[in-house]
């Protein structure tokens, strides 16, 4: 792959660049700069143009731009009144029924000078972690103050929001970002920060991020602060995940039906110190893109999924991984017999 070398920044520039995490430094300030989820952003831009914001529920995986886009929408709607007209509560804040009755209610009752026809906005991040009682209290508040206040609830799973609130809000769904979208953003940040990088290094960050822009930028900054050059080897050292090439060798042995070699490679990887969940997670990601007949790939993913479930339940032993390697080898042998 082509290597894009950049000059190392001066000490002062480097020092100042670490004052703010890159996740915050490069957080989009308006809807045009938000990356990915174009269909959802079209709806948000229409709301910004119209000026009448409904109650919103933004649901999707972490790091896909839910909170960023609702803040960008609030900035476009409220302009200079943004700081007075927006209340944000995160999962780290106490958000029981008392907070809904006191803090949220008092903000909804307060008079604030806003542009004509605009509403105050209350942003509840990680809303799916609110208690059922707090959500019940919230639905009445949403109704009473609907003339002056709008609510935006960001969550990972919309089904954890009670149905009465879901029926009072427009639901916007976010999906994981594509590899190309993350790659373009990472390259933009690298050029702005004058970071030395190569395309394989950015590819490794994309592999570890799994469609999560926040994770990708954090991994990029951690790699730069640790090694000053973003290469594939440096990224996997920082992210502490098994190298996909090593995991691919295990799958190569399984596909050949060589149980002894597959078991030896799993043992070797285990002895380097990686946890069971790290190994099984990388194994799943590599298996998804591995070149196999469709039926066999589905069998492989099913076996890896069942083993992942057992490990998540607490049985994180080497025996689980060795058993998985043996079963994967067996699947190939059975498919050869069937054919």
From TrEMBL:
Q: Which GO terms describe its molecular function?
A: ATP binding
Q: So which domain of life are we looking at?
A: Eukaryota
**In its UniProt record, which GO terms are filed under biological process?**
DNA replication
**Official protein name in the record:** Replication factor C subunit 2
Transmembrane region(s): none
Which locations, inside or outside the cell, does it occupy? Nucleus
The Swiss-Prot or TrEMBL record describes its family as follows: Belongs to the activator 1 small subunits family.
